[in-house]
Write a structure and sequence with these properties.
Elements lengths: L7 H32 L6 H4 L15 H11 L9 E4 L8 E8 L5 E8 L6 E5 L6 H8 L9 H22 L4 H6 L7 H15 L1 H15 L1 H12 L4 H8 L20 H11 L4 E8 L7 E7 L7 E7 L5 E5 L6 H14 L4 H29 L7 H19 L1 H14 L8 H19 L5 H27 L3 H6 L3 H49 L13
Antiparallel strand pairs: 1-2, 1-5, 2-3, 3-4, 5-6, 6-7, 7-8
Helix pairs in contact: 1-4, 1-5, 1-13, 1-14, 5-8, 7-13, 8-12, 9-10, 13-14, 14-16, 14-17, 15-16, 15-17, 17-19
């Protein structure tokens, strides 16, 4: 089946635009998808990364949230109840209470802290500017370049935007034979053809997924830049009005000089009210602003984690407990629901764990599509029409891209090991764990620059990542005592799943490396046999030497 082709001039324009836009963003886009795929399971990774969270799950409706506030107040001097603070109720993935608060000094400089509280004993397990473990959060932040100050999230937004542009131009480029090429996928023939077949076929399969991520990634990353024109056009430049249209709770005004409130509605009452009215939705966050003042509020966020519009926000007055702002699940205006839908589509917070697994697989396929695009670009330029200098440049660019992207696999395994091996009671342990991850990634990347053979580069990274991956469940067993079989017997399924996943990844990776080495050795032997046979054939077909007799012998 052939569709109507583009005109040659338009086709060439789309082809070169697709190539240039794709090659420019390829390694950054790979980082976004690779780190984002792992960050999908940020909640499920928490018990593995924090052994203190490996406790029995407590029904969140029985928790005394007002006692949590009291405990934090008694254990820190940097907690201002008039500023916004809140906490996450216990969940099966994270059965601990995570409390977030802040303070303000005389110069109006804010300081933030996070506290981890045991839901039964109300013991503060950790308190500081960051939680004592940050591994999954680091991976999550990497997927939108949070480590680059100020401009990181905007860079990720622009990468997503150009990704959407690359998708559009790619579809137009292959439009004529897109159906035929989809069914003509094969792993035989020249490498350029193999890369091209995989690039087009898998690109077609994941096309809806990629469009979703390109659109949501661009909107979330460039939200400030996109809201500014709307503010000027619709609200005379007042950006707060735009924010209120999306999040009505953000439009509530507070008076710093309001009267002090002696008695009022507490957290427990509001929690019970919301959980009773919406029993099918889980309370994901409960927070307060101006808590000690007469105009203070207590807000609650809910979500059913199943529907695309199953989240909601309710804000109650602290003095009388009456509802001030409410965004009900499944019942909302377009403006109120648009942002929540973007979040759910991007982070797969609907449809349960199986949807996350599907997202993960599609993200990994997209990573392959990105790599195959780079290899198509490289093989298409390995021709005599390019000078040796140009071909060497193309080779160095390809090697640089492959080194950055493929080294993420062993670097990812390294942060898991670092998180387990750095003592949990080490103050400020987040910094050394992150330092090991990023410095290890840098070292792995530099190592790849010394390997000129692409096959060797790929195999070495796969080997290193597989070996480090196999060490992860071993490290967890030695440090925490929760060996793979013990976590399964104790029904610690989140811990077991992480260890089992790395064990499977490590074994499969070593098998692939072994197969590659075995195939290479067989190929070398066959080549030697072929060369030997060819030499013997030439010798047998050569004419017999002529005996030369000198005049003296005559």
């Amino acid at each position: 089946m052939k569709l109507k082709a583009l005109k040659p001039r338009l086709h060439n324009a789309m082809f070169h635009t697709h190539t240039v836009s794709g090659i420019v963003i390829s390694f950054a886009l790979f980082v976004c998808f690779y780190a984002g795929a792992v960050a999908l399971f940020m909640d499920e990774l928490y018990q593995w990364e924090n052994p203190q969270a490996r406790i029995d799950y407590l029904d969140p409706t029985t928790e005394d949230y007002d006692t949590d506030i009291k405990v934090v107040s008694e254990n820190t001097t940097v907690f201002n109840k008039d500023l916004t603070f809140g906490m996450t109720p216990p969940t099966k993935a994270n059965p601990l209470i995570t409390f977030y608060g802040r303070d303000k000094d005389e110069q109006n400089n804010f300081s933030f802290f996070a506290a981890t509280i045991h839901p039964i004993t109300y013991e503060i397990l950790s308190m500081g500017e960051e939680p004592n473990t940050h591994m999954a959060r680091t991976i999550y932040e990497l997927h939108y370049f949070h480590q680059i100050p100020v401009v990181g999230i905007y860079l990720s937004g622009f990468v997503a935007f150009f990704f959407l542009f690359a998708i559009f131009t790619g579809v137009l480029t292959h439009w004529k034979n897109i159906v035929n090429k989809f069914y003509a996928f094969t792993t035989e023939g020249k490498w350029k053809q193999i890369w091209t077949n995989g690039h087009i076929s898998l690109g077609m399969i994941t096309l809806p997924f990629q469009i979703i991520y390109a659109v949501t990634g661009a909107l979330l990353g460039l939200s400030i830049l996109l809201l500014a024109p709307s503010a000027f056009l619709m609200y005379n430049g007042d950006t707060s009005e735009v924010v209120k249209a999306v999040r009505p709770d953000a439009g509530i005004k507070y008076d710093d000089e309001a009267l002090t409130l002696t008695e009022g509605t507490n957290f427990n009452t509001i929690y019970q009210k919301v959980s009773t009215e919406y029993p099918e939705n889980d309370v994901t966050y409960i927070y307060a602003t101006n808590y000690t003042k007469s105009d203070g509020t207590i807000g609650v966020r809910v979500d059913d984690y199943e529907g695309i519009a199953g989240d909601g926000i309710f804000v109650y007055g602290r003095d009388d407990g009456k509802l001030k702002v409410g965004i009900q699940p499944e019942v909302r205006s377009y403006a109120n629901g648009a942002y929540g839908v973007l979040i759910k589509l991007h982070y797969a917070t609907y449809g349960g764990i199986f949807l996350k697994i599907i997202y993960f697989i599609l993200a990994m396929i997209t990573c392959y599509i990105i790599i195959s695009g780079v290899m198509i670009w490289r093989t298409a330029r390995d021709k005599p029409i390019y000078t040796d200098k140009q071909r060497r440049f193309h080779h160095r660019v390809t090697k640089f891209y492959l080194a950055i992207t493929l080294s993420m696999f062993p670097a990812l395994a390294l942060i898991f090991l670092a998180n387990m091996l750095v003592p949990m009671d080490w103050e400020g342990r987040v910094f050394p764990v992150n330092a090991i991850f990023f410095s290890g990634w840098l070292v792995f990347t530099l190592m790849g620059l010394f390997w000129n053979n692409y096959r060797q580069l790929n195999r070495n990274y796969l080997l290193m990542g597989s070996v480090l991956g196999l060490l992860i469940p071993i490290a967890n067993g030695f440090v925490t005592g929760d060996w793979l079989w013990q976590s399964l017997m104790h029904k610690s399924y989140f811990v077991f799943s992480v260890d089992a996943a790395w064990l499977i990844i490590g074994i499969v990776g070593l098998l692939v490396c072994g197969y590659s080495l075995n195939r290479k050795s067989k190929k070398d032997i066959m080549q030697k046999v072929k060369v030997g046979a060819e030499s013997e054939r030439i010798s047998s077909e050569a004419p017999a030497p002529v005996l030369q007799i000198s005049a003296k012998e005559k």
